[in-house]
Amino acid sequence: MNDEWPLLCLTAVTIGAIHTLLGPDHYVPFVALSRAGGWTARKTIGVTVVCGLGHVAGSVALGMVGLLLGGVVLQLEAIEAWRGDVAAWLLIGFGLAYLCWGLMRAVRAAPPVHAPAAPGSAWAPWLAFLVFVLGPCEPLIPLLMVPAARADPGAVAAVVAAFAVATLGTMVVAVLALRYGLSRVHVPAVGRFGHALAGLAILVCGGLVKVGL
Question: What's the CA gap between 144 and 174, in Å, rounded?
């Protein structure tokens, strides 16, 4: 491993953290699902980490394939852009479906504010995982190419690890911070619309991803 790997790792950590914080789709959906489903902090962290791992792993797998096939950075980034478009539409569809389901549940059942999570919401974490696996980590591909160009597998592994840790760590911190903040806000009037509001939040995140915000 050459002398540039510490700088590459620092860059990966910085970009990973900034990339995550600037993308509300990295944490808002988990907070919305956690609040609507009455998840514990442990379950919220678990779902966030699993989805985050899938998020990073998808791009790492693409990067590894590109390296093995001698892919060009721009070609890989084009594929990442396509994946991002697919992920945005899936997020929009997920949010819209969850919003409609939440509205129907609220109108028909009208449960109390602190009612337990509905059985039908059990599929939400799995759909979130699917969306995040398809969602791209655009900054990771160029970062992989730099050490790879120097035929340094150790540097590639270090960069991937640094980016993954920074991304997952930032996701968890952002989710827990926002979750805690919302837990201090009590609005009983909208309690039975919790799932619908979660769907709306996810739908808005998907829209933001689609327009590139």
Answer: 26
- C-alpha distances (whole Å) from 66 to each of 61, 71, 73, 150, 175 are 9, 4, 8, 15, 32
For 123, which DSSP code? G
Q: How many whole angstroms from its chain centre is CA 148? A: 26
Find the helix packing angle between 140-149 and 5-21, rounded to 10°.
Answer: 170
d(CA 98, CA 127): 11
- Write the pLDDT tens digit of every residue in 84-129: 677 778 778 878 888 888 888 777 755 454 444 444 456 666 666 6
Per-residue model confidence as pLDDT tens digits over 25-49: 788 888 888 887 788 899 999 989 9
Contact in structure between 161 and 5 (CB atoms under 8 Å): no
In a 13 Å sphere around the CA of 114, the CA atoms on its Cβ side amount to 2
